[in-house]
Amino acid sequence: MNPPVATGAPDATDAGPVLSLRDFHPFEAYGARFLYMVPSAGIFRMDDAGGAVLDALAQGPRGLDDLVAELGDRLDVDRLLETIEELTEIRAIGDPGAPRDEAPNDLPPPDFPLNTMVLNVTNKCNLACTYCYEYGDDKIVDTQYGKQPKFMSEETAEESVEFLLRQSGEQPTAHLTFFGGETLLNFPLLQKTVAYANRRAAEEGKRITFSLTTNATLLKPEIIRWLADNDIGVTISIDGPKPVQDGLRVFHNGRGTYDVVLPKIKELLATHRSRPIGARVTLTQKHLDVLDIYRHLTEEVGFFEVGLAPVTTQEHRDYAITPESKSHMLRQFEELAEEWLEHALRDEHHGFTNVTDTIEEIHKGVSKAYGCGAGLGLMGVATDGEVALCHRFAGSPEHTIGSVSEGVDREKQERFLVDHHIAEKTDCHKCWARPICSGGCYHEAHVQYGDSSHANLHYCTWVRSWTHTCLEIYGALAEKNPKFLERFGA
To answer: Is this prediction's pTM over 0.85?
Structure first.
């Protein structure tokens, strides 16, 4: 087999083309060595020959002939040359003078289909959660005195459905999520919109699936029955056991909500069996017992899955998570991740969705040009029909890219896509975790830095540590139970 030929500076020497390590992140599982390639997001398992080549080049660049001479006494030379060629092809090694591999800055096509539309059916809420991004100290839209109507009208909802059907292009299925405020404050609109959407989707030869997020305070038997009968996915915003829930998630008079929502949630879980019911937890500095929160919500309340997210807020708030507490939080995440792996090795379900979601992205080889699908495959609709990047920006003129009646302003959308592309985030260019992160949440960036295109640098250490943990889990499954990974698709 012919040896690989390096191109660019430095020139080949008497020792042959010079080779060095390129851009990847190594990890191990059960003694097996893997490479996570950047920016392609490919994963490769190293055999003994591959490991030996990488270990040698970790000491510094080598000429090809010197590398073969160094390793040839303990490895078959033909296999060694084949391995060097393979590592060169996947760009794990190569010319030390070659430029770094970067994500191409190509923009998505203008007709990129809309996958998910989040309908903010109301901007009112019956709770006064201290940390709320929509009503708290960090809000970016004046929902109390602003011009937007408090409740979306039936006409706007129908226009939104038509918008979704048009913007979803040739896709046979699109998704509509109802959101608030507290979503169920506008329950009659939900009923009418689902009926209208189902009828119009059938007429267009498509299908629309539905979900909603609620704080559970307004759940009652007839609503629960309707959710089950219409196969509506439900996510409950709840932060944990009674002391945690009642600490920050309170009614306007300050009364805690735990005793109100618990029986309602239990009835929902008992009645709505067609789709898993999930909990969405906001973690704050005041309550960071992640393990206790998770176990309470799964083992005592009965949620099928639980996702936990650090609060989005400026660092000077008393509920903002401190750097020291982030490390404590990460250790607990890692403990739950180990539990998740133990379950997966036995082909059992574990409800910690933070692992599930990341493993799916790793398995599918996701390499993001953007932090999420906001403004592209996902859009949020405000109560007046204005279309924003996502539901968190609904009602913000700065982040509006059209309306359901007039369509997407392609010029504004393109400007957003250019400004928020990973190619524009120079802080991210040397980070090995950028295929998964791509700078992070736009809303988080806006709150922290006043600029939605800014990389979320305050979470870089967290993201790298968490991604490494999930890569190790992925490697362990690849070694011990690869069939489990098939459930994540191709």
So the answer is: yes
